[in-house]
Specification:
Strand order of the largest sheet: 1-2
Order of helices and strands: HEEHHH
Largest sheet: 2 strands, antiparallel
Structural class: mainly alpha
Number of strands: 2
Number of domains: 1
Radius of gyration: 40 Å
Strand content: under 5%
Distance between the termini: 6 Å
Number of helices: 4
Length: about 230
């Protein structure tokens, strides 16, 4: 990231500064140091805009998940309606055929009564089978709708978790960078104040002699190199 490059430049400025004889202090160009710090601060809004982009991406992910869920539910409903329609048509056709057969057999006379009764019983069993088919179709349609609703809820939950993790990672990165910059500026201001007092022994504050600041800046440069 460019912000880490500016921090690296600031570290290089301090490390390459001319030392003060008989002292651990060094002389750095205050103007250059402040320019580097201002450059780092100017780069921060770009990182903050990344957070807004991730929030916008979250809305897109949720919208896509909602559209996918609606599509699955609509497809399941269409499939259920088609299955029910086929079952009803088949049952109606079977009923119509059974009624026609019964009427035909009855018209043949008393001599065929026994055979007609047997056939009527068979047709009744067919009607029962047709009703069983319809009930099974309704059960399957209900199961499809419930599965589609469950899948939609899972997709939305996974989208929320994904976006939350992205935002948490970005928040940690921004907080660490802001903490480093704040400590660096405080040390820079402290060093500038010491130089203004004219203390010939201490001179300008040396960032490299503060383990906390030096560790933060070097660590930031290493993280920047890894991310680059």
């Amino acid at each position: 990231m460019e912000v880490y490059e500016r921090l690296d430049d600031l570290v290089d400025l301090v490390e390459g500064a001319r030392g003060v004889p008989l002292s651990d202090s060094c002389v750095i160009n205050r103007t250059i140091a402040l320019e580097l710090l201002e450059a780092v601060r100017a780069l921060m809004p770009a990182s903050l805009r990344d957070a807004a982009t991730i929030l916008a991406d979250r809305d897109d992910v949720l919208e896509d998940a909602a559209r996918e869920a609606e599509s699955r539910i609509a497809a399941a409903q269409d499939e259920a309606d088609a299955t029910l329609s086929r079952a009803e048509n088949e049952a109606a056709a079977m009923l119509s055929q059974a009624q026609a057969d019964i009427e035909q057999h009855l018209a043949q006379g008393q001599s065929d009564a026994a055979r007609t009764v047997d056939r009527a019983r068979a047709e009744a069993e067919r009607l029962v089978a047709a009703d069983t088919i319809r009930l099974e179709a309704e059960r399957q349609a209900k199961a499809v709708r419930e599965q589609a609703a469950s899948d939609a809820a899972r997709v939305r939950a996974e989208a929320d978790i994904y976006v939350d993790k992205r935002l948490a990672n970005l928040e940690d990165t921004l907080r660490a960078a802001l903490d480093q910059i704040g400590r660096g500026r405080r040390r820079a201001n402290a060093g500038t104040s010491q130089q203004a007092t004219g203390d010939s022994r201490d001179g300008v504050y040396d960032f490299t002699q503060d383990p906390e600041v030096a560790g933060d800046l070097v660590g930031g440069r290493r993280r920047g190199n890894r991310q680059a």
